[in-house]
């Protein structure tokens, strides 16, 4: 885990999206930025700017995605029970968090890119 005050302005993310991040009992809206060799978890600022809070080297990152969708079964989402199908666990040597995306398709895009 590396902490750094900012993302260089010349760095273009491979993927970037807003997520609901849960760490223990804390929940917050954050931005995930996937760079060439690291994942940045950033706090949203005014307008379109972000303030990086964590910089995680991809070779130190574990991505865990589970649920019934892994078995090829459809999950009911009408009553809100499908929250798990839109979430994944990000873990690194000194911590972890649950990232919940806006849709299952967006989560699957991230999983495919991170593991790909």
Search tags:
116 residues, mainly beta, 7 strands, 10% helix
Structure description:
- With 116 residues, the protein is mainly β.
- The protein has one helix and seven strands; from the N terminus they run E-E-E-E-E-E-E-H.
- The longest helix has 12 residues, at 104-115.
- The two termini are 21 Å apart.
- The model is unreliable at 68-80 (pLDDT under 50).
In short:
The chain is mostly beta strands. It has one helix spanning 104-115; strands spanning 15-23, 26-34, 38-44, 50-57, 62-64, 87-92, 95-100.
Please describe the topology of this protein.
Elements: E1 15-23, E2 26-34, E3 38-44, E4 50-57, E5 62-64, E6 87-92, E7 95-100, H1 104-115
Antiparallel strand pairs: 1-2, 1-7, 2-3, 3-4, 5-6, 6-7
């Amino acid at each position: 885990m590396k902490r750094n005050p900012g993302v260089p302005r010349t760095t273009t993310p491979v993927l970037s999206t807003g997520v609901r991040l849960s760490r223990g009992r804390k929940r917050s809206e954050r931005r995930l930025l996937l760079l060439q060799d690291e994942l940045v978890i950033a706090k949203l600022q005014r307008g379109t700017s972000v303030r990086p809070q964590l910089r995680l080297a991809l070779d130190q990152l574990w991505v865990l995605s589970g649920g019934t969708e892994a078995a090829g079964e459809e999950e009911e989402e009408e009553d809100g029970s499908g929250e798990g199908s839109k979430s994944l666990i990000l873990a690194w040597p000194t911590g972890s968090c649950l990232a919940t995306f806006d849709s299952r398709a967006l989560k699957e895009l991230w999983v495919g890119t991170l593991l790909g």
